[in-house]
Amino acid sequence: MATKKFMYLNRRSSFGTVYAIESLEVVLIAAAFEQDVSLAFMDDGVYQIVEGQNSDGIGMKNFSKTFHALGDYDINKLYVSKESLEERGLTESDLMPLVYEDEDDDWAEKPSIKIVTNDELTAIMSEQDVCLSF
Amino acid sequence: MLHTVNKSSFERNSLQTCLNTIDDSSVILFIEDGVINAANNTKSSMIADLATQGRVFALQGDVEARGISSKLADNIKLVDYAGFVDLVVKHGTAVSWV
Question: Cα–Cα–Cα angle for B27, B30, B36, nearest 5°?
């Protein structure tokens, strides 16, 4: 099957709407079909990958742990909007330390998250075959 | 009156509309994605004065779910579900800015 470049734009936080978990479901499906998958986190979507989420008190599944599994599905291009982080008083150190093992570099553990400016994100989006916004 | 806000002000203008119409004795409770308004960020000035007066609350379970417990703006009061009920009882009419 032909491989296409898919980018998923995550713009909403985790629990208030169903968008975040639905996006993650579709990302895993694309990975199962061995597509070239990238994720972008912008606007309130940056809250999806904040470290230390605990949803025990609201009776909902804490699916943020699933992001740690993405590296094993060869999904290791997670772009986070610098402007969206700054607007929310967040820094990279507030995010989950998501990593993958690089098979071309003796399985060295490397960070999956890359902080990008809006201009950089524009360039990355223009390289995609498909962009899906959630 | 009790005003509940369940949307992030980065997404919707419901907090601003609430603030435009709130009277001097009313309090605000942030629930669901509204708790993002309780985090210390570039929108915090919207609620700073009310928070200083002890009139801004946030639902603890929603704060913890979003990983922002350690990032709250000054003077935000956390309540659990029982505290939510107490606010409803104390303040009578509730406005839910969905």
Answer: 135
